[in-house]
Amino acid sequence: YLFLRELNRKHRAATVALNDIRRAESAKRRAALLLEGKPPSNYPGYSSIFRHTGRHTEKYIREQLMFAPARLGEMLVIDCGFEQDHAYEHYLSNLVDQIQYIFADITRYHSPSFVYLTNVAPHGRLQTEFIRRASLDNMCFEVTEASYLDLFPHDKLIYLSPDSNFEMTSFDHDAIYIVGGIADRSSLTIIINYSNLA
């Protein structure tokens, strides 16, 4: 035990010494570059008036864009109540992919809608898949186990379906559009039945 502790102490001391040497050499190079009138760093934003932003800052800016439509009531609802219809796991994985694509791309539009994920079972397969890949807490979405019928006025709900007899030709900012959270095309007729209830 004492022998291993001594080895660890020597290893830490050697690491600290190497770091000190590296810092001293970096300081010398920086001083030499300044004497020659050259920028002391190749950092992209060092010689620019524009600030370089990292991923956390970009994520914060994207989330700020979502607050305005959330307050104005411009919503896009994804109905996640079709877990039992996803017979295969890859269908559920495709659904998670599509939701993540929405989160990545929605802020690129001029007036993005705030996204609600409804009918999400607390310990369901969809929630488990998100926990395994990317937590919903990291996305600027409103996630609830409640139904959209209990959250929004029924007269504003429009359930979108590729099998509908009506073609959507314009976008109503006062309406609340619902997309069925299902990736298996063999179950699309269920969405029509749900739309009739709305």
TrEMBL record:
User: Domain of life, per the record?
Assistant: Eukaryota
Q: Report domain SAM-dependent MTase TRM10-type positions.
A: 61-198
Q: Does the keyword Lipid biosynthesis apply?
A: no
User: Gene3D superfamilies in the record, alphabetically?
Assistant: 3.40.1280.30
Instruction: Supply the name of the protein.
Output: SAM-dependent MTase TRM10-type domain-containing protein
**What is an example of a GO molecular function annotated in this UniProt entry?**
methyltransferase activity
User: GO CC terms on record?
Assistant: mitochondrion; nucleoplasm
- Alphabetical GO biological process terms: methylation; mitochondrial tRNA 5'-end processing; positive regulation of mitochondrial translation
What InterPro entries has UniProt attached to this entry?
Answer: MT_TRM10-typ, MT_TRM10-typ_sf, tRNA_m1G_MeTrfase_euk
What keywords tag this UniProt record?
Methyltransferase, S-adenosyl-L-methionine, Transferase
